[in-house]
Structures are given as structure tokens and as C-alpha cells.
Amino acid sequence: MVDFAALxxxxxxxxxxxxxxxxxxxxxxxxxxLALAYIDARDVMNRLDDVCGVAGWQCKYSHANGKTVxxxxxKCLIDLVSHEWIWKADGAGDSDIxxxxxxxxxxxxxxxxxxxxxxxxxxxxxxxxxxxxxxxxGKPQWQSWVVDPWTKVKPEQRAGFETARKQNGKxxxxxxxxxxxxTEAELAVIWKKYQPELTVFQRSDAEIFKQLQxxxxxxxxDLMQMVGMPQGFNEIGRx
Length: 239
Prior knowledge:
The protein has 239 residues and is of the alpha+beta class. The chain has helices at residues 4-7, 41-52, 99-114, 155-179, 184-198, 205-217, 223-227; strands at 16-25, 31-39, 57-64, 67-77, 83-92, 127-136, 139-145. Residues 220-239 have low confidence and may be disordered.
């Protein structure tokens, strides 16, 4: 079985980079930029290799409406003996630098977010960070950060990453296991396995078990919505 919590685990701090989305010039002539966190596509590949194995994942590319689309497939355990390739996809347009290469990389990273990889970064508020910039054709061009952007991130957000990552990762695991359930007995096994997590919502065993049945019968409903879990990391992230 794929360890989805390991896929969604935070990356080392030095693996996270920051890009300037927009730049503002202050009255005193100094600059600041809106900093957005991102990870490198190679780090995503290494994470997939480490968690899924080099033969446990694959990707493919296509084009739709002028955008590059990446599909990432992971070999998932469907029952106790068989596996099936499960695919999740996302797309991106050309980037400002090395357009075709940038589109491939961005689409790949966005598809990886669908699997939880690096998703925790996108709960960060965008922060304005002092930077060095150079004027080019009347517009400021980012050169470097004056201070580490991490220092501008709210302390409560930094402290909450690990807890939120574990919670959201657990709900994704439960949802994936429910998709493979075919009998009441199998459903009861899932309920027993995750009872401590589910009963935290102050519902009776019978009420939660009924919710699990409803989810099993209609997987269009999101598990986190059914049990009341805040959906902190469900937006499509920045690549």
C-alpha cells in the first residue's frame, strides 16, 4: 500500500525555494516582492522514487487548450493481492523562462500536488519580503532576497504545518482505503482501524458508521466534508 502520509511529508527547509510574483518599489527607493514558496521537480521525482519505488510510478504528457497536461500514475494496492494504476493530472501554461521546459516542469509539480506532494506549502499566506531589484525598461526585475522569506511567514502557520499535514494525510488514506471496500465486513475493518480519528468529531459510533457507508456508496462526496474536517489544503497549488 502506498504511504500517502510519506508522500505529503514536508521537505527539508533547504529544498524549498521562493519566487517573486510581483515587485513593489517603496518611497525610499527600496524594493519588496510577493514571495511564493515552491519545490524543484527533481525533489518531487525523488519523493516518488523513495515512497513508491522507481517502478511504482510513471508520468505522461499531453496538450489541451494550449496547456501542457501531466498525468502521474501510482501503482496502488486495490485489494490484498492486486494492484492498479491510479492517475491524477493537472496542467500548466508556458513559463516566462524556457517556455516548453517550464510548462513540463510546472505541470508535473501541479499533478504531484494532486497526490499531496508539497501541498502543505500552499497553505502559506503570500508574504511581502524585502529584495534587491534592478530597473529594466521602466520595470523592476527581481535579483535576490534581502532577508529569508521564511522569517516573514506567520509563526502559527510554521508551527501548524506538521499537525495539519498529518491530519489531511490521514483523511486521504482513509478515503483511498474506502474506495477498495466491497462488503460490510471490510467496511467494519476500516471503521475499527480508524475509530480514534473518526470519533474525535463527537458523533456516535452508529452515526459515523452510517457516514462511512454513505461515502462508500457515493464516492463523489469528499470524506473531509462528510466528517467535518476543514479542507485546509484542497486548493490547486502554485507550481
